[in-house]
Every structure is written in structure tokens, then in C-alpha cells.
Amino acid sequence: MSGQREIYQSSNGDRWTLCSEDDGRVFVLHEANLPSGGVLEQIEISDFLSHGKAGPEQQALLRLIATLAHMN
């Protein structure tokens, strides 16, 4: 992976990270908490945003994207 940025960590320990690869692919990496097995799942951006749009992890990604509009 060429870049990673954590976008959200839940109170139960699940983490969501925005990742990019050298070939330009961008996705969200979900890391389940250890009691749930710590499973890693790569989620395409469109799938991530279309599932549970009101979730705090989706809202965190949308806030991050919104910051791009404010950059000079």
C-alpha cells in the first residue's frame, strides 16, 4: 500500500482506514476488533458509502472528503 489514513475507530475497537495502492486503487480497510476475530476486509469506496450511510465511519469519511473542497 502506498498510503493509509485512519478515518474512524469505534468504541468497541473496530477501525476503518482509507487506503491507496500504487496502481491508484483506493478502498476502505475495515479491521474488526480482536474479540470478533480481528478480520481485515477491503471495501470499495462506493460499497462503503452505500451501506449504512448514517454510520459514524461513513460520516467520518464524508467529512474527510469535504476537507478537500476547502483546500487551496
- Give a count of the beta strands, DSSP E runs of length 2 or more: 4
SSE order: EEEEHH
Question: Helical segment tally?
Answer: 2
User: What is the SS-derived class?
Assistant: alpha+beta
Summarize the structure in words.
The chain is α+β, with helices and mostly antiparallel strands and 72 residues long. The protein has one domain (3-69). It is 28% helix and 33% strand. It has two helices and four strands. Strands 1-2-3-4 form a four-stranded antiparallel beta sheet. A hairpin with an 8-residue loop joins strand 3 (26-31) and strand 4 (40-44). The chain is globular. The termini are far apart. The relative contact order is 0.19.
Show the helix and strand layout:
Layout: E1 3-9, E2 15-20, E3 26-31, E4 40-44, H1 45-50, H2 56-69
Give a short overview:
By secondary structure, this protein is α+β, with helices and mostly antiparallel strands.
Which key features would you list for this structure?
globular, 4-stranded antiparallel β-sheet, alpha+beta, 72 residues
